[in-house]
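Sample entry (110 residues):
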Amino acid sequence: MTSSVDKVLNLDSDQAQSLLKALSDPLRLRILDQLSTGERCVCDLTEALTLSQSRLSFHLKVMKEAGLLGDRQSGRWVYYRIRAEALNALQGWLHELTRSCETPANSCSD
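Predicted structure, serialized as tokens:
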């Protein structure tokens, strides 16, 4: 069953859960913060976050699979960026959820 939240933004509960899970890890929030100024190369992220490439790659993969990040390859380097449309969809989903949760209950019949 599709809720009004899902209909408005074409973001189903599984997609919202995936985005929220990707955002729930403190390290992933640090990655997001690094990407908030624009596209960054993996080598720059590794250095800025003082992480091993394998650990960073794991978190980038989770975020990319959730739809939160996009990437492009240039030569041997991969550049990552935040997909603003994913954040906008999640923000809209949360807004609609907030709006709909304020609906009063129907009166119970005695």
